[in-house]
Write a structure and sequence with these properties.
A hairpin with a 2-residue loop joins strand 2 and strand 3. It is built from four helices and five strands, in the order E-E-E-E-E-H-H-H-H. The protein has about 150 residues and is α+β, with helices and mostly antiparallel strands. It is globular, with a radius of gyration of 20 Å. The chain folds into two domains: about 45 residues, no CATH class; about 100 residues, no CATH class. Helix 1 runs antiparallel to helix 2, helix 1 runs antiparallel to helix 4 and helix 3 runs antiparallel to helix 4.
């Protein structure tokens, strides 16, 4: 089954490991065989991989688009998830699902799950920041009363 992709002007995508940048007009592409495809909004750069879950996403992305170095990215993935599960055991269920996809060479499906992992990480971080902010406000108001 063919995959139709419409790119906006100047939008980028990765197709089979090649980075393609669209010209100044909207364009349609039909991918007629099985090849890794990532649209610009799905592509993460090394600079953007600034948290543990984002680094996991990047490792899976590289597995998906760079088959020649698959062993390197697999090793990196297992190291990253082992460290994450040790720090946050609550993510084990998501990691198990992603890992099953990876072991069955379904990298795009694993990539989709890793976006949920990033969202979970962001929500947890926001929760911690709110809690710390509340504690600091509470301490300051108690200090003023003293």
């Amino acid at each position: 089954m063919a995959l139709k992709i419409t790119l906006k002007p100047h939008e980028r995508m990765i197709l089979g490991g090649a980075v393609i940048t669209n010209g100044h007009v909207r364009s349609d592409f039909i991918v007629e065989n099985n090849a890794p495809v990532l649209r610009q909004k799905e592509i993460m750069s090394e600079q953007d991989a600034s948290s543990p879950c984002r680094r996991i996403y990047l490792a899976i992305q590289l597995m998906y688009v760079d088959e020649k170095n698959l062993i390197t990215y697999h090793n990196l993935y297992w190291k990253l998830v082992q460290s994450l599960v040790k720090a946050a055991p609550s993510v084990l269920g998501m990691i198990d699902q992603m890992s099953e996809h990876i072991l069955n060479n379904r990298y795009y499906q694993a990539l989709k799950l890793s976006r949920r992992l990033i969202q979970y990480e962001e929500e947890a971080t926001q929760h911690v920041q709110k809690t710390v902010g509340s504690l600091q406000s509470h301490r300051q108001s108690n200090h003023v009363r003293s």
